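Question thread 4412

I'm putting together a teaching handout and wanted feedback from people who do this every day. The idea is simple: show students a protein as raw sequence, then show them the structure tokens that encode its fold, then repeat with a second protein so they can compare. Below is the first pair exactly as I plan to print it.
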Amino acid sequence: MKAHFLAFCYIITILLISKVTIAQSVIEKEVSLEAQFQLLLAAQTDETKKEINARIVSSFSEMLNQPETFDYKFTKLKNVGVLTSSDRQVRIYTWNLFWQDGTFDYFGFIQHKNNKKGIDLIQLFDDSKNIEAPEKQVLSNKNWFGALYYEIIDVKDKERTYYTLLAWDGNDLFSNKKLVDVLYFTNSGQAKFGHPIFRRKGRLAKRIVFEYSKTASMALTYDTKLQAIVFDRLVPSKPTFEGNFRFYVTDVTTDGLVLSKDKVWDFVEDIQSMNVESKGLKNRKTEKPIKE
């Protein structure tokens, strides 16, 4: 009996030592990564940035392949956005590179809990410069519309969960972009971006892209009280700039997206003027889709 107890204690001790060793390894890798990011920030040429970033991507991939990192709090990484879904099935890491011509490229990884295989690691490859009509496209990790994600909203449907993502894109010297996108996973575990769940005047879009002047500031966030995505309305700074988004600025109106019963985000004008507690958002009519 004593021998069994000693054997049990020995196994527990080995497991605890192993867990501590793994945690120390992740901490060391995080510290090393942050040092590389500091070198990246100090780099003066695009070529140097490419070289340092290639090392960052490799180090990040190696570290995130450890399942323990899914629940690890990366408190030392100051230049990486880390988002975890409410259902704790998805974790997304994104960061960007600023080039000398004023444009940006984005990089990232997704950790996805696959019930069959544990945790899948999916690398993201920015292809936004080559994507035409992004509102109409279903994309993958190989042709990702790169951006920095800063908010994730889980939307559970009958078949799967759709993760609505809010993001920022520095675009170029003249304009910024903000993005409302959606991530989901196929039955085989492939990551897909874009799905027709954004509806305005009956028409469906697979994502929403806002572009506005570099001199302006646009708010885009999820309001827990309204249970809606709220954002500043964009208008041309002068009537002659209609359609030229480099000259779009915000006005005093806040519009929004409200999740309908059919799990579609419906556009709502001047959302703050509606009374969510009584007749406003709760009693609004759900839009019928337009057949095209």
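The second pair follows. I'd like the answer to focus on this one:
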Amino acid sequence: MQVHFYNFAVLNPLLMLKKIYAPIIVVLFSSCLFNKHQDKRPVIILDPLDTSTNPKYKDYNKAISLDSNNATAYINRASEKYGDTDYAGALTDYNKAIHINPKNLYALNGRGMVYYRIKKYEEALRDLNSALEVDTKLAQAFFYRGKTKVELDDYDGALNDVASAIQLGYDKAWAFDEKGYLERHLHKYKEAITDCSVALYMDSTSESAMVNRAGSKYMLEDYQGALEDYNKCISMYPKDADAYTGRGMTLSKLGKGKD
């Protein structure tokens, strides 16, 4: 473990920022800015991506040190890294788990999700297909395969996968949101309104669900309904360019854009 001591009186602010974000434990200690009764316990700043210092990796690290073929430990550590957006670290651990067991469902699904996040869509599709060959009812794999297919311009396939995910119990607000987006893209406006409404019932702050429901209402000539959704979106997200564009078009249809 590398430990550094600094005096606040002479510490350059830019140097301090650099040290805070360095992948080491930084101990900040001052003896001159406070009186002699100050609390001199060190302040420890951990880098969440450093598996050697982050305590939530401790047990997985120990398990792997005792058994280098412990696929479960690699998978769980990868999941933690994924949550910390350490996609490179997660990919390394998932690779190790798959090397140990090429048919491990959770490793294949997890690596597919990582590949999606780092925009390697062909690799993501391959792993998610493999995961679904092992378990044809893995809802999360269907959902992420659907999102991957969107990036590969397979919107029909994407809609089928997202719908399957929901049917299998992946009833998350963002799943209905994604389904509504795909239905709007495929000109299924009534279905899009229904699914966006479900998403908004589950999460009333969903920005994309508001815009996609508004856009679908606009295409069905429900201009007043579209205006209400665009107004709500803009009140919550004043930097949403799509909402302003849609509202402008809607106001024109209502004859209110010629002031």
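Top answer:
Good format. For the second protein you could add a caption like this: The CA atoms of residues 173 and 203 lie 6 Å apart. DSSP finds 13 helices and two strands in the chain.
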